[in-house]
Design goal:
This protein is of the alpha+beta class. It is built from 5 helices and 8 strands, in the order H-H-E-E-E-E-H-E-E-E-E-H-H. The longest helix is centred in the first third of the chain and has 20 residues, at 2-21. The relative contact order is 0.19.
């Protein structure tokens, strides 16, 4: 139990640091507030809102990002998924990147790269709810050869510069592309 409490304390500190680095983004207080719900907020059974972890999976040269054409949402997005009770969201992002890309030898950065709070529409018995998505940089250092999983229609390496410059790109993808280019 202590390890999980420390992990949530560390997440709170990371969210605060993120907010200092990106003061124009207003969602940080929502992320810190959701932590008050405890470990339950890291499970999809938290029907109103829960944490998810995503990967900004960049190529070895840092010029491209691997995107998934998401099966349920029908859009090109970063890889990621539910925490399933794991409060180490960097580990969640790495696990999801490995599972959804089939790429071995990935490395994850410890600090959040992007925070995005968004509504998920109702689907079947699942009600509409909030995803508090904590995104991490994951790097493909050994191989860039991917395998499409059941969660995707397709995977593709896309130019980060092209995403940043394309007004038709998903808003959060454009934000992450610009953040990446500022590094």
């Amino acid at each position: 139990m202590v390890g999980r409490e420390v992990s949530m304390h560390m997440l709170s500190e990371q969210f605060l640091q993120y907010g200092r680095h990106w003061p124009e983004e207003k969602d940080v207080s929502h992320f810190i507030g959701l932590l008050d719900g405890g470990e339950h907020r890291f499970r999809r059974e938290s029907l109103e809102a829960h944490f998810t972890g995503s990967a900004w999976l960049v190529s070895a040269d840092g010029l491209r990002v691997l995107l998934t054409h998401h099966r349920k949402l029908g859009r090109w997005l970063q890889l990621g998924g539910h925490a399933d009770g794991d409060t180490d969201l960097a580990r969640v992002a790495l696990r999801e990147a490995e599972e959804e890309s089939g790429i071995a030898g990935l490395e994850v950065e410890a600090e959040p790269f992007d925070l995005d709070r968004h509504r998920i529409p109702a689907r079947g018995a699942e009600p509409e709810h909030w995803h508090y998505d904590v995104r991490y940089v994951v790097r493909a250092v050994a191989s860039e050869d991917f395998v499409v999983s059941d969660e995707s229609h397709a995977l593709a390496w896309r130019s980060i510069r092209e995403i940043a410059d394309d007004p038709q790109s998903d808003k959060s993808l454009r934000r992450m592309a610009w953040k990446w280019l500022q590094r």
